[in-house]
Amino acid sequence: MKPLTRAELEVMNILWDGDGGMTVHEIVAGYEEPQPAYTTVATFLKILEAKGYVEHRRREMVGRTFCFYPQLSRQKYLTQVVGDVRDTLFGRSAKNLLHFLVEEEELSEADLQDILAMMNNGNLGK
Fold first, then answer.
1. How far apart are CA 99 and CA 105, in angstroms?
2. Calpha distance 83→109 (Å, rounded)
3. From CA 56, how far away is CA 69, in angstroms rounded?
4. What is the pLDDT of residue 62?
5. Which of 56, 74, 114, 121 is most open to solvent, judged by the fewest CB atoms within 10 Å of its CB?
6. Is the dihedral of CA 20, 12, 48, 89 positive or negative?
7. All domains of the chain in start order, with CATH
8. Ranges of the chain with pLDDT below 50
C-alpha cells in the first residue's frame, strides 16, 4: 500500500479511534482546534479511498449521508510501516532497529526492565 502522509494519518487515527463508520462531519469534530474545513477532510477521504485505506457506505435511514470505514487496523498499518523501516533503513535486521531505538530514544531504566521482562516471558508482540 502507498504510505500515508501526516495529514492522511490524522484522518486515519480519528477513524481508528472511532466506533465504526464516521461521517465527514464526525471526523472533522474529532480534530483538535483549529479544525480543518469539511472540504479538506472530504478530499483526504477521497485520497485515502483511492489508496485503499478506507471505504464508504451509505448510512441507513439518513438519506445521502456516507460513513467512512478503515480497511485495515492500526496494528496492521504499524506492522507494515515498521517492517518497511526495518527493511529499508536497518538492513532487514530487527536487532539493528531495536539497538537504534534503545540508543536514540533515551529509554528509562524502568522501560528497559519492562522490555527485558517481556522478552524473557515471551510476551513481545502480545
1. 10
2. 26
3. 6
4. 63
5. 121
6. negative
7. 6-70 (1.10.10.10), 74-121 (no CATH)
8. 126
